[in-house]
Design goal:
The chain has helices at 2-8, 65-78, 93-103, 112-136, 147-157, 162-173, 188-196, 209-225, 239-257; strands at residues 13-14, 25-26, 44-45, 53-58, 83-87, 140-144, 180-185, 230-234. By secondary structure, it is of the alpha/beta class. It has a single domain (53-264), classed as 3-Layer(aba) Sandwich (Rossmann fold), CATH 3.40.50.300. The protein is globular. The chain binds adenosine-5'-diphosphate (ADP) and magnesium ion. The site of magnesium ion has 4 residues, from helix 2.
Length: 265
């Protein structure tokens, strides 16, 4: 499953090109061949499109993020919604290279600080190359993992100091935060069972259950502290039930915030 998901994200998937920021100068037309005429009217610049929205998927391995994200993208596209699907680590050519390094089972000796900095390097590139331009262009972004994963995995899972993480966050992504986060919560044992069926388990998938218990608890702390942004989804249910819960949550979010904007004209 994961290998086919990998193929789904060569770098990014733009389903429909839409709404890129295009500032156009509108001045009075003098007609062909006419001499330039002075006008009292100032040229006007058409406003940039309203900012887009960022929806992130979070949760431990095997919670169903990648498969649910793909299902939601299909659902939204069928509704005429213009979505951009991306992921972290990765999402860019450079970031996908960093992702391979991060997940390579050969790098068993990777220090938690190295791991953190590689994730941040991937995010910096992803943010500058994909996320920020897409938000500026009014796009609806579905992103597989973002900052919450860093706080849960590197902060709680690896016990790294969370304080410097906050300043890294300001440095890498400024004030941009997800508009909605779907936290797919699954029991560790169940999540690991789901991914154990993968023959090519990566470096992180080989972590011990205790590590994922800490990560899961870290995610729950985030959900408790930001209930307006983070919606907890019970990912122990079967695939279709989880998909339905996600669709309902996102449909409500879109109705409330953006339904007109992310639809094709
Ligand atoms: N609700 C579910 N019930 C049973 N299996 C699931 C469910 N959601 C996902 N899976 C399966 O579990 C595996 C991991 O799903 P995936 O979406 O790759 O998880 P993640 O991206 O969170 O690691 C895949 O084989 C997927 O088909
Ligand atoms: Mg995944």
């Amino acid at each position: 499953m994961e290998s086919s998901n990998r193929e789904r994200y060569p770098q990014r998937r733009e389903r429909v090109s839409f709404g890129q920021a295009r500032a156009t100068l509108k001045g009075p037309s003098n007609g062909p061949g006419s001499a330039p005429r002075k006008s009292r009217r100032r040229p006007t610049v058409s406003p940039a499109p309203p900012r887009g929205h960022l929806i992130t998927f979070e949760g431990i391995e095997g919670s169903g993020k990648s498969t649910q994200l793909a299902a939601l993208a299909d659902h939204l596209t069928a509704r005429g919604c213009n979505v951009l699907v991306t992921r972290e680590p990765g999402g860019t050519r450079l970031g996908e290279g960093i992702r391979r390094m991060l997940l390579d089972p050969q790098h068993r000796d990777m220090h938690p600080k190295t791991e953190l900095l590689l994730y941040l390097a991937s995010r910096a590139q992803h943010f500058e190359e994909i996320i920020e331009p897409a938000l500026a262009g009014g796009r609806l972004i579905l992103c597989d993992r973002f900052w919450d994963a860093t706080f849960a995995y590197q902060g709680q899972g690896r016990n790294l100091d969370l304080k410097p993480l906050k300043s890294f966050q300001a440095f890498v992504t400024g004030k941009v935060t997800p508009d909605l986060t779907l936290l797919l919560d699954v029991e560790v044992r169940r999540g690991l069972e789901r991914i154990q069926q993968r023959a090519d388990a990566d470096r992180l998938e080989r972590e011990r259950a205790a590590f994922y218990e800490r990560v899961r608890a870290g995610y729950m702390k985030i959900a408790a502290s930001e209930p307006d942004r983070v919606v907890l989804i019970d990912a122990n249910q079967d695939f279709e039930q989880v998909a339905q819960e996600i669709r309902k949550t996102v449909d409500v979010f879109l109705e409330k915030h953006v339904v007109q904007r992310h639809h094709r004209a």
